[in-house]
Amino acid sequence: MAGDFFWLCSMQKLLTLLISKSLGLYINILSYIYPKKASWLAYKFFSHPRDGRLIKESLPDILKEAEAEMITHNDFLFQMYTWHGNDTKVLLMHGWESNASRWEQLIGYLKKSGCTIIAVDAPAHGLSSGAEFNIPQYAEFVDIVVQKVKPNYLVGHSLGGATAIFFQSHYPNDYIQKMVVLGAPCDLATILKNYIGMLSLNSNVFQLLEKHFFEHFRIRTHEFSGSIFVNNIKKVKGLIAHDIHDTVVSFKEAKKIAAAWPEAKFITTNGLGHSLHGDALYNSIYSFLFEE
């Protein structure tokens, strides 16, 4: 039985790899014939999550315990959850292909302080609308939430952590006093290179993607970096945590953020992987937020 399970997992990984490489080959060919279509297709698979959605009728129990509120912004609907407590407020931001329920374990720790906890579903995740995820849009929504609930502390995981840094840099405010950044990537250029490598895309496609980011978001990929953004974060205490064996976001990314933000605490873990669920880490986060 165990052998069958591992065989099935191996076959699924092989199938995923073959699909990725086949898609990459198709985009590579298109890049020379129909560059606009190749650019659109490459960006679509880069920005459209394939997991992380929730069904309203069957939410995880932790989200059923919260007060749910749908926020309208332009043509988008964003889901927010609140576990009510005292006047101290913590805002939680999940990452790629996840949703607000990923915070279930941490919420148990935060509740010990008596604080109010707010969590959001990012664009195209959970119950929020949209098909595309990008950091500027996520940060724009977070700004609406911050202006509405005025949180004291901000906690972000993975791309949620990268968005937290971008948000605090581009939407300075007097509410956020402390930030916790967990397993976050630093450079958009590195994320793109990993994506290019995963699909075996050629340099032509990479240039098309760079052009797409500039034309649609006015973003120069080499300048879109957490190590640059943290220079604009003033009067906010930071805690950075990353696992040395993270296979999703390289430990080097955390080191770049920490080097540019020397005032922030830098915690390394060993064995928690990218998810970073662990009692010792959660106790450190609790201590940083509520005891220091």
Secondary structure layout:
Layout: H1 2-33, H2 35-47, H3 61-64, E1 67-73, E2 76-83, E3 89-93, H4 104-110, E4 116-120, H5 135-149, E5 153-157, H6 159-170, E6 178-182, H7 188-199, H8 203-217, H9 226-229, E7 237-243, H10 251-260, E8 265-269, H11 279-290
What are the key terms here?
single chain, 292 residues, alpha/beta, Rossmann fold, 8-stranded mixed beta sheet, 8 strands, 47% helix, 16% strand, disordered N terminus
Number of domains in the coordinates? 1
Kindly identify the CATH topology. Answer: Rossmann fold
Q: Give the radius of gyration.
A: 19 Å
Count the helices. How many?
A: 11
Under CATH, the homologous superfamily reads: Alpha/Beta hydrolase fold, catalytic domain
Spatial arrangement of strands, main beta sheet = 1-2-4-3-5-6-7-8
| Top-tier CATH class | Alpha Beta
Specify the CATH architecture: 3-Layer(aba) Sandwich
Distance between the termini: 50 Å
Mean pLDDT figure:
91
Order of helices and strands: HHHEEEHEHEHEHHHEHEH
Structural class: alpha/beta
Q: Which outline best applies?
A: globular
The profile of the biggest β sheet is:
8 strands, mixed
Assembly of the depicted chains:
single chain
How many beta-strand runs? 8
Strand content: 15-25%
